[in-house]
Amino acid sequence: MTLRMSERRTSIIGAFLVALGPVSMALYTPAMPELVRAFASSEAAIKMTLSLYFGGFAFAQLVSGTLSDVIGRRPATLIFMAIYLAGSLMAAFAPSVAVLLAGRLVQGIGASVGMTVARAIVRDQFTGTTAARIMNMIGMMLALGPAVSPTLGGIALGLFGWQSIFFLMVGFAAMACFTVQFFMAETVTPDRGKGHLKPILAAYRELLSDSRFVSSTLVIAGAVGALYAWATMLPFVLISEVGLTPTEFGVGMLMQSGLFFSGTVTVRLLMRRFTPQALVPAGLNFIGMASLILAFTMHALSPSFLAVMVPIGLYAFGIAFVMPYMMTAAMAPFPHIAGTASAMMGFIQMGSGLLGGALAALVGAPALALGTIIPGFGVISIASYVWYCRTVRLRPLTVPASSEEALREAAE
């Protein structure tokens, strides 16, 4: 296996690319009530901008991941970043809700490449504990992005208005293109044969029939999917029901981001003494406790900032323990289709967030939805890890001979 980028460079580029998706999703959540007024629209229509972004992001990963296997990581990333840039400009200059909806859909399609390529370039070059360390950094941005973004979005909204949020995204797109063009090396040999329908379907069939991949991906979906799901609910709970201003909401979300950051730092220190897998049960314990507390506070108490954010922060702390190993384990057996595996993992992860947001819209009452749906995600994550452990005992993680030693390290 030839290393084309250092561990540090791969970590930085991967973290930046993966952050684009959640940042674009969450950056403008403080502006949602303002957008209702600005376009004289309904709350349901503005919520649809999140749903369309989720949908575009989730489904486009299936294309961007496979395309990166076919034409290479760099060309695929540049193509989709150009799409993201176009969507950001559409949203910034939107004269109506319809154009805003279209812009958000295009943004989601473009941003999808960041998550798939970030994980793929890690699997192209690294396995074992090294890959887990990089995934720890990427996981930090994957969850820290939607945590910090509302703070930045709330400040931008208060100072410059809602359009400024989309101009920030234009700047992110330009930075991504510059980074990929001048600093990111190509980590895979393009294979045009993988672009035909038969090998594409065969690759997805291989993934979905492998219980190691499905179970580990569902652990991630239950953990990180909750982040995307509650991002659609928290603005309406904390702003509309608790009474925070958009700026207060943005600053208040620092509680979530702070606890998640503490979790990632803790995990990085603990990985000096423990294997990444050994940290997963601890993270699931935090997620389980947070789920129970949130279910109680949202059903038995009146919504307040602490009643909402203490369990949310605890859940985010637990996610930091789960992600490094589970992401590495999900992709480890599939070096030959790393882009496709990353795409399917991201699709399931984002799709779970989309489903959670849709269920919240059906429930109607934001606090009730938060206290029911998010604990459900916690149950899915814990149950899937039990399934994963049983599966790996029967089918240990294995790959071609050149990578066997590194994978044994990952499976410790």
Q: Short summary of the structure?
A:
This protein is mainly alpha-helical and 412 residues long.
Q: What is the fold's blueprint, element by element?
A:
Layout: H1 7-26, H2 32-38, H3 43-71, H4 73-92, H5 97-125, H6 128-160, H7 163-183, H8 197-208, H9 211-241, H10 246-252, H11 254-270, H12 276-300, H13 305-331, H14 338-363, H15 366-394, H16 404-410
Transmembrane segments: 50-71, 78-99, 105-122, 134-159, 165-184, 213-231, 251-271, 278-298, 304-325, 337-362, 368-388
Membrane topology: Multi-pass membrane protein
Organism: Sinorhizobium fredii (strain NBRC 101917 / NGR234)
Describe the structure.
The chain has 412 residues and is mostly helical. It has one domain: Growth Hormone, Chain: A (Up-down Bundle), CATH 1.20.1250.20. Helix content is 83%, strand content 0%. Helix 12 (276-300) runs antiparallel to helix 15 (366-394). The two termini are 21 Å apart. The model is unreliable at 398-412 (pLDDT under 50).
